[in-house]
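Hi Y.,

Following your request, here is the sequence exactly as I used it, all 247 residues.
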Amino acid sequence: MVEAVVARNPGRLSAEERASIAAYAARATWPSGFVIYQRGASADGIFVVLRGRVVLRSRVRAGRGFVPGISCPGETFGAEGLSQNARYATDARADEETETLHLSGARFRAFVREQPQHALALISQVMCERAGLLDRLRELTTLSVEQRLVSTLLRLASSEGFAAPDGSLVLDASRYRLLCEMVGATRESVSLVLAKLVGEGLATRDGAVVTVEPPARLASKLDQSWIDGEMMLHLNGAQDRERRALT
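Below is the corresponding structure, written out as tokens. Let me know if you'd prefer a different format.
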């Protein structure tokens, strides 16, 4: 099951592909916490992360948001800027000191003309990330909070810079908030699931810090909870069909 979850994660542009993009793009370094752009701003081109992380966030209400994705080295963000009259769909903030490449619309077209092989790799990366977003949409509409949380933990464990050397995830206050925004659930709901993981020996708590075990055991839990969820969906569907037949 670990392999299945990791396979859903987007791939990453190679060092050679990033170097080819760099010849056409503007390079910038952003300090931790810097807002690179905001939702609704005029969008142009596409960004590629070289170092660090960029968190994409949609503001839901004061103090709360939803994080549809995190871009790590070799991944892209802001691809909506490749369409005409585009506006950014989320806020983009550097989660730590981050280095990016920005390929404007005009430079992107030049890149496609002059480096078609590497341009295809970039387009493939964008499509892979779009597939990841669609997969997350499916999770939001079909999985329980517990299933979504476990799936998100597995996704974070496979992302660069999140997992400890032994594969475990340490959730301090900032990462706990990020986890809630990625799961799309309240802090109370996430706390209940984490408490359940602690009770099952899949996580430990030290004050306000929660350490989640490496992904192998978590993956088996997602597998079981997914099976239980699918069985419940089929059972509810069968009951609905039976009630309709009786009426």
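The mean pLDDT is 85.

Thanks again,
Q.
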